[in-house]
Amino acid sequence: MLSRKNLEILVAAQKRLYCTFPELPSFEQRWDFETDGVIQALLTRLGDNDPYFHPRYAGHMSGYVCDVAVMSYFLAMQFNPNNHSYDGGRATTKMEVECLDSMARMLDWNHYQGHLTSGGTIGNLEALWIHREMGANTVICSKGAHFTHKRAANILDLKYLEVDVTKDGSLCSIALSGLLAALEATDVPVVVCTLGTTLNGAIDPLDEIFSLKAEHDFKVHVDAAYGGYFYLIRARLAGRNRKAFDFLPAADSIVIDPHKHGLQGFGCGALLLRGVSESTSQAIYTHDSPYTYFDRRGISIGEKTLECSRPGAAAAALWATMQCLPLEEEGEFSRVLLSCHTAAVKMSELLFAVDDVRLIVREPALDIVVFYIECADISAATRQLYEQLKASGFYVAMADCDISSETGVFREVSCIRLTLMKKEHLAMVDELADQIIRLSKCIADEYRSQYQAL
């Protein structure tokens, strides 16, 4: 939520904004309705949310939007630039190009094509569409991949195949090897590798996937919507995960979502493509548009995007954020990512030491921790813990997992899911862990008493 200090800066900036075009007659919108009552009603209705912006919220992948992004979006939105054509948003088009250039430099890519999207769903769809247009007809994903890939394959009329996952939720390279060997001669695959699954942040073994290319010919698309920025701190990750990130620059296409760990509001994703020639790209994206692209002094990004109208304000917000927090391995932005990872590792260590708590994965790959209470009714205990944590001022999420507990093997059992993606989470890990441990013990004791009573 915008700090009071930055609110004052924003008010001063708004006053400057009024003077942007001094050669034009003064203009302010005039309407016959009063806004105050509606805004008050809006504020009341916004209260019907969880506090996603607050460090006490550690549920879904909902980080806060950093102040500079909020301020920049608000200011740029009033121009309402459209980054489809250079005519429609010159300033924000240049900002978008600078943002993508920075992301490409992070990956050591000297030559690339790319642009912002509305999020991972569209970015992944567009990547698979590009691969289809270049000859691919089969999509291979792990069972832990986001469901958007199956939807995209259906939309694009591509064959869709799934690969089993390992115990930590990452793609099993042995199973992938067997599947590749069994493909039909007419199958032209693109393998989707996830760096940061939605369930628990698992990292597919990208290094092992690339080793299979010596025997099998396929393209590699990396869905790094959640985990892409962790490339900056790959040296601080566990060995197998570091190896996976080391191979990220070798991917043919990559999706990264600034609206996750990039501190942006939802509606800001990014797609980067490598190895697509200018002529091929031109042939894929070619279209007739006699009513736009008239200003040829700059790039019209929309000439090579699946989406047409895209908010220039999103580019402005991301650009301003990256001015303050550049993508540097030793910079403040990387330290934020490291603090999130450290928070998850610490939380896992604290919970692992508790008799009644079971972790789905012992060591978090990124910053997500999933666990359950070992008892006669795990799902009911999860719901009870969820509500009790909420009542005590901590907001978490639930997720359905397949587990092997002391009482048997169960499918789609409800577990608690913590996403520790705010830099402030590290400072509150002990407090949250204490609450979880205390409440979990009480809930487990309650179920033991019920069992003994029988």
TrEMBL record:
Keywords: Lyase, Pyridoxal phosphate. The modification N6-(pyridoxal phosphate)lysine is found at K260. InterPro entries: GrpII_AminoAcid_Decarb, PyrdxlP-dep_de-COase, PyrdxlP-dep_Trfase, PyrdxlP-dep_Trfase_major, Pyridoxal-P_BS. The keyword Lyase applies. This is Pyridoxal-dependent decarboxylase. Its cofactor is pyridoxal 5'-phosphate. Pfam families: Pyridoxal_deC. It comes from Pseudomonas versuta. Belongs to the group II decarboxylase family. One of its GO terms (biological process) is carboxylic acid metabolic process. GO terms for molecular function: carboxy-lyase activity; pyridoxal phosphate binding. The keyword Mitochondrion does not apply.
